[in-house]
């Protein structure tokens, strides 16, 4: 057992599922030098998609469903998504449908849900008809958690979201005008995104903004401006994701963001937001890139990783970080109230390495 002693690069190289990945020695060394006492790390397994590794058992398919109030429809048709991400979600096109969906999912064991929908041309999700139903769900099932994707909001909209009783408010924070105009097809400004963030943090909501790394066709552009916005407004937690342009058009292709650049941003974000929970969300490239990105996230000191790559539980243990597992959306983990202290939740026969 290593318990964090020795070179982190050498430790990672001895973990079988991580064989063949490429980690930058200089960056890993910087992360190791910057690390203080290594806190526990939370691994999240929301049921948005099928997931299991040799270390972590798949969570229930109905534990954390994603629901769209517009079905697959979205007016923006952003270049990386084209509304296709919504198509895999449970549709609830009317308030009564939302009530029925919530009841059905709770009956099947759901602990909470992600509630979202397609945007109008101003990057607003038109939730107004649904707020009373959300309030009804929360009053009837107070332990059922609802994380709401807000899109852009004014003060009144933010207040209505608070009044509805949602548990967490999520929004993407974009720091480059070119990305807003070209990728999102929006006639809105960077200032509009910052004002929306300001409006949300002015409420009592737990606000969990996301930064999508590589959003400008696979290139970094406004991510550090977005990070500065978060430093100014101090949300409850921050989720970092990496663009996954599965549905991009052939004539508008996205590159795969460089894992080293992603890892560098993780360390910079950790140092910029030392007292705010920093989480790696579900979205990021698959395969070797995912393993590299997840290893950098763990070494940079991020507080949690959703759908971790195979080998992350062992790497955490060897670096002296206790692993905790929660079958929940990482956006709901503010303050740790959704986290189950369960050590390593392993499949039968899987080996575990205690921290």
How would you describe the overall organization of this protein?
The chain is of the alpha/beta class and 355 residues long. The chain has one domain: Aldolase class I (TIM Barrel, Alpha-Beta Barrel), CATH 3.20.20.70. It has twelve helices and eleven strands. The protein has a six-stranded parallel sheet. It has a five-stranded parallel sheet with strand order 3-2-4-5-6, with helices on one face. Helix 4 runs parallel beside helix 5, helix 5 packs parallel to helix 6 and helix 10 packs parallel to helix 11.
User: How many distinct domains?
Assistant: 1
CATH architecture field = Alpha-Beta Barrel
- Give the class from helix and strand content and strand pairing: alpha/beta
Number of strands: 11
Task: List segments where confidence is low: pLDDT < 50 over at least 5 consecutive residues.
Answer: 334-355
Could you estimate the helical fraction of the residues in percent? 25-40%
């Amino acid at each position: 057992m290593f318990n964090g002693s020795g070179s982190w690069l050498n430790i990672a190289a001895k973990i079988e599922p991580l064989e063949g990945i490429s980690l930058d020695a200089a960056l890993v060394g910087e992360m190791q030098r910057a690390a203080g006492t290594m806190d526990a790390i939370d691994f999240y397994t929301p049921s948005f998609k099928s997931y299991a590794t040799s270390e972590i058992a798949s969570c229930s398919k109905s534990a954390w469903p994603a629901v769209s109030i517009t079905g697959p429809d979205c007016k923006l048709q952003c270049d990386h998504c084209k509304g296709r991400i919504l198509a895999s979600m449970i549709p609830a096109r009317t308030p009564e449908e939302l009530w029925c969906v919530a009841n059905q999912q709770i009956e099947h064991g759901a602990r909470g849900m992600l509630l979202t929908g397609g945007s109008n041309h101003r990057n607003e999700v038109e939730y107004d008809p649904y707020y009373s139903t959300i309030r009804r769900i929360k009053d009837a099932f107070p332990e059922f958690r609802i994380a709401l994707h807000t899109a852009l909001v004014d003060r009144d909209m933010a207040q209505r979201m608070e009044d509805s009783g949602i548990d967490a408010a999520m929004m993407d924070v974009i720091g480059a005008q070119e990305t807003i105009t070209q990728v999102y097809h929006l006639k809105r400004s960077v200032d509009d995104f910052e004002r929306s963030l300001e409006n949300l943090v002015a409420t009592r909501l737990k606000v969990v903004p996301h930064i999508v790394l590589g959003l400008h066709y696979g290139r970094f552009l406004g991510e550090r401006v977005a990070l500065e916005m978060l430093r100014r407004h101090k949300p409850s937690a921050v989720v970092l994701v990496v663009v996954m342009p599965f549905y991009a058009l052939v004539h508008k292709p996205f590159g795969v963001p460089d894992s080293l650049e992603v890892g560098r941003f993780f360390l910079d974000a950790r140092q910029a937001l030392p007292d705010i929970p920093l989480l790696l969300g579900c979205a990021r490239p698959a395969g070797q890139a995912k393993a590299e990105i997840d290893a950098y996230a763990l070494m940079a000191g991020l507080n949690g990783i959703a759908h971790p790559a195979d080998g992350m539980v062992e790497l955490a243990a060897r670096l002296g970080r206790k692993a905790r597992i929660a079958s929940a959306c990482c956006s709901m983990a503010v303050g740790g109230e959704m986290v189950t202290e369960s050590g390593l939740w392993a499949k039968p026969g899987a080996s575990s390495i205690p921290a």
